[in-house]
Specification:
Strand content: 15-25%
Number of domains: 2
Strand order of the largest sheet: 1-4-2-3
Number of strands: 13
CATH class of the largest domain: Alpha Beta
Largest sheet: 4 strands, mixed
Radius of gyration: 21 Å
CATH architecture of the largest domain: 3-Layer(aba) Sandwich
Helix content: 25-40%
Number of helices: 6
CATH topology of the largest domain: Aminopeptidase
Order of helices and strands: HHEEHHEHEEEHEEEEEEE
Structural class: alpha/beta
CATH superfamily of the largest domain: Zn peptidases
Amino acid sequence: MKDDAPGANDDGSGTAVSLECARVLSKMQFPATIIFLTVAGEEQGLNGSKHFAKMAKDQGWDLEAVLNNDIVGGDKGDGQDHSVVRVFSEGVPAAATEQDLRRIRGLGGESDSASRELARYIADVGRAYETGVKPMLVFRLDRFLRGGDHYSFNQQGFAAVRFTEFREDFHHQHQNVRTHQHQNVRTENGVEYGDLLKFVDFDYVSRVARLNAATLASLASAPAPPANVHILTKDLENDTTLTWDASPGGLAAEYELLWRATTSPEWEHARKVGNATRATLKLSKDNVIFAVRAVDHAGHRSLPVVPVPER
């Protein structure tokens, strides 16, 4: 038996966002490459994204960030908040080794995966540009006990997040269209089921597309993140010294140190240190979490990199 299941929101909306971003950003030139991708078989086991993510890993692709848009149609049902879009990000990386896990547990780094830094970057973009929708960071891999195509990239060690509308309407998502056998109506017990185009808010989709485009353009314009970022731990001291290698590609003009309280969800402080690759702050590594990012002459900022200990 075959039923009508149009999928206008899940995931026609995400496909539309990708196509619109491609249309707009293809008119510009960036120092980095942007790939626009749609995949099949998500509901059957993330088949398309698993294939692509594994290929990228096996071929050594340097995927800096993956933005997965899935159910971003702003369904017009009750309780929807069209002012925000949820951004889900994993905490402890799916690809973490046992050694990584010991370090994360020992240093309190459960909220500093590369995907979590990507989510914070999107929040910065949302503050810098008026896109009409604000990212609402949800520090969770995905909706409760659910998943999506970004997880395939997480499993391969890539930073990946998911964009999803604030409130799904489960009369529409994962529901076939009902048609009364004696009348040409699409209701059952007074409820109209099915993921139909009529329930999609086109203005909301366009605003989500703007946020995605601004994020992609910011990332693609920025220098590469600094490499081999370390926090020196040889001596017992209250000052903190960070070291790093210059960002590959030669676009970085200077670097910024970031820090926040261990209880803070987002970066609270930033200090420029010129083009140095070493800096010392009179702050205890016991009390805060640090990161380093690269900045080019135009002010484009890379993703932050949280240091690992160097004894």
